[in-house]
Each structure stands twice: as structure tokens, then as C-alpha cells.
Design a protein that fits this description.
This protein starts with a helix and ends with a helix. Helix 7 packs parallel to helix 8 and helix 20 crosses helix 21. It has four domains: 87 residues, 2-Layer Sandwich (GMP Synthetase, Chain A, domain 3), CATH 3.30.300.180; 172 residues, P-loop containing nucleotide triphosphate hydrolases (Rossmann fold, 3-Layer(aba) Sandwich), CATH 3.40.50; 71 residues, Helicase, Ruva Protein, domain 3, CATH 1.10.8; 94 residues, DnaA protein, C-terminal DNA-binding domain (Chromosomal Replication Initiator Protein Dnaa, Chain: A). 58% of the residues lie in helices and 9% in strands. Helix 11 links the parallel strand 6 and strand 7. Bound molecules: adenosine-5'-diphosphate and magnesium ion. Adenosine-5'-diphosphate (ADP) binds next to helix 8 and helix 15.
């Protein structure tokens, strides 16, 4: 449980760590946010893997040392989120947030939002955009061509404009990047334009808050009359939230009647959205539905090249191709791979090629000649965690069962390189996004949690033994 008591301790630890090197601390912790704190576990969120790796290497030992007396032996779990509501240090003021936030998370986030609302309107439009998510930084290939062209048209860059534009596809394939590119483009072309980019989650939170504060007029003004372009990210979040859906439905109609562009993103096609009323689903499908797919090898190589160029990472063509061949699932992981390699290479003073070769050799040599199957991995995981195969594949969401299942998915993905949908089917017909998030979660835990790492090592050993 999040208690004010621990929050105070957190802030003390922050202050003490910060005092060692204030300016660098502030720079890094503007990209870090406390999610929760309890005995044994601190959850942090950060903007990207680079911040996570740097903060873990340079600040966490000290911070944890100060937290130890309060929390005891504790793990640190990281989540990566593109938007942080209340970073430890605010980038503008470079000051940790003063008072402990109120315990209710909704009120808390609305509080952060109110602070943001007080900024001048022009800045507000840009405040939650990632400066790197521009059309110029987006690599176009067959997997995303249509979505890209449609996004450009929505931004007023020529071509027929469809309203709404519905962007869909798996996670990490560039939906948020395209949506924010639209926002940047519109603001560049028409600086006075009122562009609202919001996640469906934030839309929901703002709506609830406006209801509570009896400020629905303001809320509606912001999203209807006061809005020239509306971009709503991850609309699947509205599933089952009937009141918010209703409000969004009216917002949508008002804007479309006024011929204002609306762009919505989702991890599924409109018809596949769960617990979404038919009238919204049919509206989502009434303009253009454009999907983003997993990019082909050539596009992945081009993305790596562009990324390396932008971040001044030295990357030879050979290594780019090798990385693109070994990371196939999504662009976020592709970027994660190059960031990790670049960070390791710079910390060890090696070239990225040397680091890459090293990790590649480790990966290949851990794979064995005899082919093991998903079934083999499931069997080994079940016996390790003392579960039955039926339990592993069941809908049981009890923590220990869910964890074993996630580990099994992770191992299958690592060892067999099976596709996410394929694994979803092999694990009791689950959605591929479930497998993706399981794999990502275990990947993160493997880096931050020694206990999880120990389980994984032991399982790797057992699997190698079972391969004979
Ligand atoms: P989604 O919203 O679909 O989950 P994002 O838009 O957040 O995915 O993309 C994940 C990461 O991959 C971001 O850093 C983004 O810049 C990058 N990315 C995705 N597609 C491309 C692309 N075609 N060109 C360049 N970068 C991309
Ligand atoms: Mg996104």
C-alpha cells in the first residue's frame, strides 16, 4: 500500500541522493516518476530504457541505501511510459514535487493536470508531446505506408483527409509516434491551432474530475468548441467505461459536424474492441482505418540507422542488419536493443559492434542443437513452479500462476522466437498483446529483480539439461 509515511521517506532519500550532484540528478529524475512504494518493493516509471539504465547504474545504489532502513531488502521495478504526470523533478523548475501527493490516485493525477492547466495555453498544447515524434523521424515502409500517408493528410499535408482516421496495430509499432507527428505538424503550420493530444486514459480522468468539480462546461469547451484537432491515443482504454464513452461520443459528433479532424489510435481494429458500444465502433470505422504492421527487415534496418544518426551512435551497416535480424517483434524493442548496446558499449569503452558480437554469441551459444518445443518449456516451467499444465494454461490470474505463465511465455519467446499470436494460441488461446506484455514484464524483472533472475537462470539450466 502507498502510505504517506513511506512517501516522506522516499522524499528524504531523494533529497539525500540529490545533494551529491544536484544538476545531473535533476536532469535524469525529470524522466523518472514514483509509482508506488511499500516494504520490499519500489515501483518507478521512466520515459525510456536509456533513462532507466542510466538511473539504475548511477543513482539507484545510493537511493536504495537510504531506503533500506525503511523498506528493508527491496526490489525496484521499472515501467516505461511515454508520458509522466508527476516526475520526481519537474523539467521546468527542476524541483522535486513539494508536498506528498494525496493518496487517491485519480485526485492526484487531476492535481498534476490542474498545475499543467495553469500554464499558458500555447505551451499546454505542446507540453505532453515528445519532441522526437515527428514525421521527419518516422521511417516509412510497406508496413506503415498507409497509416503514414493518412496521418500526413490529417495534418493537412495534402491528400484526401478522412474523418476520423483510426490508427490501429500492435504495441510499439509507431501509433503514438504518428499521432504526435500530426500534432507537431499542425502546430508548425498553424501556430494558433488548438491541438489536443490526449490518451483515452487521461481523457477519462479529466472527465471524472470535471464531473466531481462541476466543471463540465470547461471540459466540453476544451474538447469541443476549443479544439481544432483532436488526437485520442489508445482508445481501447474506454472499454466498459460507459459514461466516458457517452461523453466521448458527443465530443466526437460535435467535432465531426464542425469538420475538425479526429484521429484515434487503438491496439485493435474497431470491430474487435471489447465492451465498446456499437454506435462508437461504427463511427470509428466510418472514416479510414489504417493499420501498422511489424516492419520488414529493410525498414527495421532503416529505423536503426535513423535512430543511430539522431542519437550520434556509431553503427555500421553490418551491425545494423544483425540487430534488425535478431529483434523482429516491434520497433520499441528494436530501439531498446540499440540503446542498451550503446549504453553498455560506452560504459565499457567498447564499440557497439564488439558489444553486439558479445551478446550475440552469448545468445546463440545458449541455444542448443536439439530443438525444444513450446510444450517442453511449459513442462519444465510447470515442474519448476510445481503447477499442473492445466493450471498454466488456465484463466487463473492468481499471482503465482500468472507469474509462472509469464515466465514460460518469456522463455518460449527467447528460445524459440515464436510469434506473439502463435504463443497466445499455445497458452490457452490468449490475445497476442497479453503475451507481449508478459514478455516485456519478465524482461524488465530479469534486469531489476535478482530473485526473478535466479528463477530464469535455473530454468535455463533445466532447459539446457532437458535438451541433452
Ligand atoms: P505504439 O504507440 O504503436 O505502441 P510508439 O509510437 O510509441 O508505438 O513507438 C514505439 C517506439 O518506436 C517509439 O520510440 C517510436 O519513435 C519508434 N517507432 C515506431 N515506428 C517507427 C518508425 N516507422 N520510424 C521511426 N521510429 C519508429
Ligand atoms: Mg502508443
Amino acid at each position: 500500500m502507498k502510505t504517506p509515511e513511506h512517501l516522506t521517506e522516499w522524499q528524504h532519500a531523494v533529497e539525500r541522493t540529490r545533494s551529491k550532484s544536484p544538476s545531473s540528478f535533476e536532469q535524469w529524475f525529470a524522466g523518472v516518476q514514483l509509482e508506488s512504494i511499500e516494504p520490499g518493493l519500489v515501483r518507478l516509471a521512466c520515459k525510456d530504457a536509456f533513462v532507466r539504465d542510466w538511473v539504475s547504474a548511477h543513482f539507484l545504489p545510493e537511493l536504495r541505501h537510504h531506503l533500506e532502513p525503511v523498506l528493508g531488502e527491496h526490489r525496484v521495478e521499472w515501467t516505461i511510459r511515454s508520458v509522466l504526470e508527476r516526475p520526481v523533478c519537474t523539467p521546468a523548475e527542476r524541483r522535486p514535487s513539494a508536498a506528498p501527493p494525496p493518496p487517491d490516485p485519480t485526485a492526484q493525477r487531476a492535481g498534476a493536470r490542474r498545475a499543467r492547466e495553469e500554464r499558458p495555453a500555447r505551451l499546454r498544447g505542446l507540453a505532453n508531446l515528445n519532441a522526437k515524434f515527428t514525421f521527419a523521424n518516422f521511417v516509412v515502409g510497406p508496413s506503415n505506408q498507409l497509416a503514414y500517408a493518412a496521418a500526413r493528410a490529417s495534418a493537412g499535408g495534402g491528400g484526401a483527409r478522412y474523418n476520423p482516421l483510426f490508427l490501429c496495430g500492435g504495441t510499439g509499432l509507431g501509433k503514438t509516434h504518428l499521432m504526435q507527428s500530426i500534432a507537431h505538424q499542425v502546430l508548425a503550420d498553424r501556430p494558433g491551432a488548438r491541438v489536443v493530444y490526449v490518451s483515452a486514459e487521461d481523457f477519462t480522468i479529466e472527465f471524472i474530475q470535471a464531473l466531481q468539480d462541476k466543471k463540465m462546461d470547461e471540459f466540453r469547451a476544451r474538447y469541443r468548441a476549443g479544439c481544432d484537432v483532436l488526437l485520442v491515443d489508445d482508445i481501447q482504454f474506454l472499454a466498459g467505461r460507459e459514461q466516458t464513452q457517452e461523453e466521448f461520443f458527443h465530443t466526437f459528433n460535435a467535432l465531426r459536424d464542425a469538420d475538425k479532424p479526429i484521429v484515434v489510435s487503438s491496439d485493435k481494429y474497431p470491430q474487435q474492441l471489447q465492451r465498446m458500444p456499437e454506435r462508437l465502433v461504427s463511427r470509428f470505422g466510418s472514416g479510414l482505418v489504417a493499420d501498422v504492421q511489424v516492419p520488414q527487415l529493410e525498414t527495421r534496418v532503416a529505423i536503426l540507422r535513423k535512430y543511430a544518426e539522431r542519437e550520434h551512435i556509431e553503427l555500421t551497416d553490418d551491425v545494423a542488419v544483425l540487430i534488425a535480424q535478431s529483434v523482429q517483434s516491434n520497433v520499441r524493442e528494436l530501439e531498446g536493443a540499440i540503446i542498451r548496446l550503446a549504453a553498455k558499449a560506452s560504459l565499457t569503452g567498447q564499440s557497439i559492434a564488439t558489444e553486439f558480437a558479445r551478446s550475440e554469441i552469448a545468445r546463440v551459444s545458449s541455444r542448443s542443437a536439439t530443438v525444444i518445443s513450446v510444450g517442453d518449456i511449459q513442462r519444465v516451467v510447470c515442474s519448476h513452479f510445481r503447477l499442473s499444465n492445466a493450471e498454466l494454461l488456465s484463466k487463473d490470474r492468481h499471482k503465482s500462476v500468472a507469474f509462472a505463465r509469464q515466465v514460460a511465455m518469456y522463455l518460449c519467446r527467447q528460445r524459440l522466437k515464436s510469434s506473439f499470436p502463435e504463443l497466445g494460441r499455445a497458452f490457452g488461446n490468449r490475445d497476442h498483446t497479453t503475451v507481449m506484455s508478459a514478455v516485456r514484464k519478465v524482461e524488465q524483472l530479469a534486469e531489476t529483480d535478482p530473485e526473478v533472475k535466479a528463477h530464469l537462470d535455473e530454468l535455463e539450466r533445466k532447459l539446457s539439461a532437458s535438451e541433452g
